[in-house]
Amino acid sequence: MMWLTTRALGLGFACVTIWLLSLALAIAMHTAAILYLILWAGLADGRAIHAIVRGLTK
Question: Residue 45: phi, psi to the nearest 5?
Fold first, then answer.
């Protein structure tokens, strides 16, 4: 019976670890996408970055 509990805990831990890794990856990808969009907007119009930075720093 004990090995079953250990097995279940190990499986649960693995699932949580995988979930956390995928969450971190998703956050990183969203951050990269947002930065890319900001840079793209900034290249299209230099004032866009200044407006965004001013908005963030207020």
Answer: -150, 110
Sign of CA dihedral 45, 48, 49, 51: positive
Query: Measured between alpha carbons, how far apart are the two ends of the chain, in Å?
Result: 60
Domain map of the chain by residue range? 20-58
Question: What is the C-alpha separation between 13 and 1, in angstroms, rounded?
Answer: 19
**Positive or negative, the Cα torsion across 12, 17, 23, 26?**
negative
Residue 27 has φ and ψ, to the nearest 5°, of: -65, -45
**pTM for the whole structure:** 0.51
Model confidence over 13-37: pLDDT tens digits? Answer: 888 899 999 999 999 999 988 888 8
